[in-house]
Amino acid sequence: MANGSTIEWTQATWNPVTGCTKVSPGCKNCYAERMSKRLQAMGVEQYRNAFQLATHDESLKLPLRWKKPRKIFVNSMSDLFQKELSFDFIRRVFDVMVEASQHQFQILTKRPDIALAYANKLPWPDNVWLGTSVENACYTYRIHELRRVPAKVRFLSIEPLLGRIGRLPLTGIHWVIVGGESGPGARPMKEEWVTAIRDRCLKQNVPFFFKQWGGVNKKRTGRELEGKTWDQLPQQTTTCEVSCSV
Fold first, then answer.
1. Nearest-angstrom CA–CA distance, 207 and 220
2. What is the pTM of this model?
3. On the CB side of 57, how many CA atoms lie within 13 Å of its CA?
């Protein structure tokens, strides 16, 4: 949908699918639902039905027009792996990602079980990454499903982090993003929850990215963790590079 993004860990967003349904506590204050209603009120055609699931053929080939390589968050306003979404359309999305090989595509889902069910029917080129959301210890089972999918890069979005996660399973995981909830009704996140995840990532040599503390005013709370900014990416081969001021 958009050529450019303010999301810290990507460079652009692409929304051939919009709309979703809530499946776990992390969905409670969904930013995409809130934004969809705002865009509907503004008269944006793609959101005429607000947050109801919809596919958009007109947006499918958008990444092919972008010649400069970039990281693209796939369906920032939805979830590609919804049971109500036809496999045929999912396959068409993958076909575009295969053709647009100059980009890195970042797919994030709360439904890795569906991704796993389709995994053998889909191409998984090196430029297609797959991640899953884990908001607290009750949802670490999603990680076990994710790591059975043959994506070149498998990542975790632990955002919003809503509780302590003990021994976060990181075998077969290549990147971890952590962030607090932001916007109206944002639930608090404790520093010790974040540092425990960061320390485990360092021990397991998994790149760690701290997105934000969140809150009602996320700009005010910032992105530093213990006075440092953590912007590690999967391409990194060491635990600290220029982008991570440790």
1. 25
2. 0.93
3. 1
pLDDT at residue 242 in the model? 28
Q: What is the dihedral of CA 179, 232, 129, 162, to 10 degrees?
A: -20
Q: Residue 119 — very low, low, confident or very high, per pLDDT cuts 50/70/90?
A: very high
Mean pLDDT for 34-59 is: 97
Q: Which residues of 3-37 are buried (b: 16+ CB within 10 A; e: fewer)?
A: eebeeebbbbbbbbbbbbeeeeebbebeebbebbe
Closest-CA residue to 242 (of 231, 87, 100, 3): 231
Distances (CA, A) of 95 to 91, 92, 116, 244: 6, 5, 18, 34
Q: For 171-217, how does the pLDDT look when each residue is reduced to its tens digit (9 = 90+)?
A: 999 999 999 999 999 999 999 999 999 999 999 999 999 999 999 99
Bridge partners, 156 (sequence order): 132, 176
Strand order in the sheet with 128-133: 12-14, 71-74, 104-109, 128-133, 153-158, 175-179, 208-212
Tokens of 38: 């705002």
Q: Is 223 strand, coil or helix?
A: coil
Q: Is 175 exposed, middle or buried (0-12, 13-18, 19+ CB in 10 A)?
A: buried
CA 226 to mean position of chain CA atoms: 24
Residue 87 CA to residue 69 CA, distance in Å, equals 27
Pairing of strands 104-109, 128-133: parallel
Q: What pLDDT does residue 207 have?
A: 98
